Amino acid sequence: xxxxxxxENLPRLIRAIKLLATDPRPxxxxxxxxxxxxITAMVAEKFTNERTADGIQKALHLTVGGVSLGLEHxxxxxxxxxxxxxLVEHGAEHAFQxxxxxxxxxxxxPEDALVGEYDQxxxxxxxxxxxxxxxxCNADPHKNWNGAEKYALQLKQRKDVQAIVRLANWLRRHNDxxxxxxxxxxxxxxxxxxxxxxxxxxxGIVARTGQKNFERFVRSVxxxxxxxxxxxxxxxxxxxxxxxxxxIERINAYRGGCxxxxxxxxxxxxxxxxxxxxxxxxxxxDADYD
Length: 290
Hints:
Blueprint: H1 12-17, H2 28-47, H3 53-75, H4 80-90, H5 92-107, E1 114-115, H6 122-137, H7 147-173, E2 185-186, H8 187-198, E3 209-210, H9 211-224, H10 228-238, H11 244-257, H12 259-263, H13 270-281, E4 285-286
Parallel strand pairs: 3-4
Antiparallel strand pairs: 1-2
């Protein structure tokens, strides 16, 4: 059996530096070395420990990754010669700042659909930035690096979460009983409540509920036996088109996988239905019984 082929994928900065040996431009190597030393010193001061060898080495790795990420973003599928030309013409600092901006912007996107007040705390924001910078841009000059792919994956994941959070915030603002103003947000819970209550029909938007309102809702559905699909269509008609993709995806999931919807027309007890609702709504339920 033949051994698996290992494709070398060194950081883009290192691949560009290897071309310096045959580059005819005077002082290109010296200027690049000076720039990289300066960036490494800055990273060591702000992000690692400039007083230890380990801190300096880690700062070097972060510099290599930061510059490489900036080059990957600026040049996409262009070759290593294009990367060297970029470094000589625009400077390593320019590439590093581009890479760091990507990390900073990524850190400001929500990680998951549970959003709390602490997410905007400056200390937490700075810690989140540091963690992402270390996770994505830690690039050993002598080893393969997949930071650009890791960044692209996290960007997609976080944009997907952002779309969920934005839909939930819209539903909260347009809640029929008045806007829900809590700083803590369970975005999936908000969407779940809205989809479940939409089966009652009428196009109402329920972003948060309590046990009393849920019991009224169950009695209404059992009495009137509304067309669930018509209720979802009415909800969809009220929601702006930019949120439709997320909402349609969730409606499709709830249509066949939500026990509250599946059992609401059966003899399942109110107590059990409310317990099931808790699984979907989570913290978006009000405690309205003593």
